[in-house]
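tl;dr need the bound structure. longer version: we got a ligand (S-adenosylmethionine) that a collaborator sent over and nobodys looked at where it sits. i said id run it. heres the input, straight from their email, havent touched it
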Amino acid sequence: MTLFPDMFEPVFSQSILGRAQEKGLLEMHTHQIRAYTKNKQMQVDDYPYGGGMGMVMFPQPIADCFRAVCDQVGARPHLIYMSPQGRPLTQKRACELAQLPALCVLCGHYEGVDERVLDALVDEQISIGDYVLTGGEIPAMALVDCVSRMVPGVLADEVCFTEESHFASLLEYPQYTRPAVWEGREVPEILLSGHHAHIARWRREQSLERTRRLRPDMLAQADLSEQDKVFLAELDKE
Ligand code: SAM
């Protein structure tokens, strides 16, 4: 639900999300909130009570738009409001949301939406980071993209996301492709060895080392084997 539905089509029609919709794995619809106004000017926002800068989106068009979405879906979808005041988006939450049959995302604009909409309708508020954007459209695209790629069949294999950064509270190991030497820089020899067990261990250690170096806060949540702990203890000694 947005005041700028045209922003979505160019993004959602491309690449993996575009193909997933063609295959019928995902269905996405944009809903123009302005189409539900009841005033002649098609106004959707008004001055804030109590004064202050900017405009606030008023409740009626949003509520009517959501009712239309519920009718279209045939059930009440989980309603998420994209907001800098929401809980930060995480891979874990996106994974849980991917299990739900339908999601509806409300994009705010201007100063945001009347608080009573949040009280009456919204199930969850999600932020994409501690900064403020002009509208919820780009955050909604980030959320939809992240959730969609965990819907079964959207990616070629579950491994595509289970081994990626953040899924298991670790950052991914470094990736290389052809050529084996580029401008004097060589691909690590182990990756050319064909020894799958050694490659898997090397990748795991790379993943542990970079998480420790770049995002030590994540390690506390990671599921570590005894071998992983020994490896990290060795790094701590260096
Ligand atoms: N006045 C609001 C505040 O201070 O919390 C900010 C409003 S912001 C200019 C307009 C809209 O952009 C919000 O209603 C929200 O939908 C969206 N938005 C901005 N930053 C966001 C973020 N970091 N994460 C999610 N949505 C965001």
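gonna send this back to them w/ a short note. Residues 82-85, 107-109, 111-112, 127-129, 131-136, 139 surround S-adenosylmethionine (CB under 6 Å).
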